[in-house]
Amino acid sequence: YECKQCNNTIGTTASKFKVCAFSGEYFCTSCMDPNVFMIPARVVHNWDFHRYPVSKRVALFLLEFQHQPLINLKKINPLIYTGISEMAELQILRIQLNFLRAYLFTCREPVIEELQKLVWPREYLYDHVHVYSISDLAQICNGSLASQLQKIITFAQNHVKDCWLC
């Protein structure tokens, strides 16, 4: 019957409380963040992109690491590629980009700098095909990550088709 962060008494007879959707622990209303957040585990395991209330400490964590590529789907949930059509499509795009990168990195033309500009700051998208950030997961739902990757792949394919060395 204590808030996990500030240790104030909480409960039905004391002050109000809420449950953090990330940790499952109880917090007083002053230790909960007023915003709602997408929970990475719910996306990875349940394909749930709803936003939920979290504690202020968890909100800081999610905001700090939202652009860091920390989620390796091959290790966490490899079946997501067979169960979710968007993930299967995205995986195909990332594998294509990975193969095209191999061509572009061996080319003499300065096309690799152009590829890096298009992908920056997410070079892991063509280096590690199973790694995602929290913001990547959010972009999968609305299709913007797939369209971004498709534009980059089209650029790389056009170069490979037209370049005498590639």
What does the secondary structure layout of this molecule look like, with pairings?
Elements: E1 17-19, E2 26-28, E3 32-38, H1 40-46, E4 51-55, H2 56-64, E5 71-72, H3 73-76, H4 80-83, H5 85-106, H6 111-119, H7 124-127, E6 131-132, H8 134-142, H9 144-162
Helix pairs in contact: 5-9, 6-9
Please outline what is shown here.
With 166 residues, this protein is an alpha+beta fold. Helix content is 52%, strand content 13%. Strand 1 and strand 2 (26-28) form a beta hairpin.
Provide an overview of this structure.
The chain is of the alpha+beta class and 166 residues long. Helices cover 52% and strands 13% of the residues. The chain is built from 9 helices and 6 strands; from the N terminus they run βββαβαβαααααβαα. The longest helix is centred in the middle third of the chain and has 22 residues, at 85-106. The mean pLDDT is 92.
Low-confidence stretches: none
Strands, total number? 6
**What is the percent of helical residues?**
40-55%
**Which structural class do the helices and strands define?**
alpha+beta
List keywords for this structure.
166 residues; two-stranded antiparallel ribbon; 6 strands
